[in-house]
Design a protein that fits this description.
lyase, alpha/beta, 136 residues, MGS-like_dom, Methylglyoxal_synth_AS, Rossmann fold, globular, methylglyoxal synthase activity, EC 4.2.3.3, 51% helix
């Protein structure tokens, strides 16, 4: 599975803690992250990630392009609901793409943990079927 890890500034520590707690699950997958989030996760874990630009500089759109090409399977985007984001239209577009392409997306720690546990149990294996259908 290809998994994107994204976090707003005030949520970066939470996503690092999440990556540490679920490192054994995440290590079995291809991981992607926006700029600083990816750097912080790699510094705190042994996980290897493909890093994109930071969100405001286009990282959200780079991940969105992967979603549109059916190259992403799960998005964990820890959003800060209490702080205005200058690139809010990009964030909304990313979540809309997830909805259009039926990509599971978690936007808070609770839903992220549920998604990672489901991933561990094989409950997201249906994404493999989607990949095969898109190839035909």
């Amino acid at each position: 599975m290809k998994i994107a890890l994204i976090a707003h500034d005030r949520m970066k520590e939470e996503i690092v803690q999440l990556a540490m707690a679920y490192e054994n699950i995440l290590a079995e997958h291809d991981l992607y992250a926006t700029g600083t989030t990816g750097s912080r996760i790699m510094a705190a874990t042994s996980l290897q990630l493909t890093r994109f630009l930071s969100g405001p500089l286009g990282g959200d759109q780079q991940i969105g392009a992967m979603i549109a090409r059916n190259e992403m399977d799960l998005i964990i985007f820890l959003r800060d609901p209490l702080t205005s984001q200058p690139h809010e239209p990009d964030i909304i577009a990313l979540i809309r793409l997830c909805d259009v392409h039926k990509i599971p997306v978690a936007t808070n720690l609770g839903s992220a943990e549920i998604m990672l546990k489901a991933l561990e149990r094989g409950e997201l294996d249906w994404r493999e079927v989607v990949h095969k259908e898109k190839e035909s």
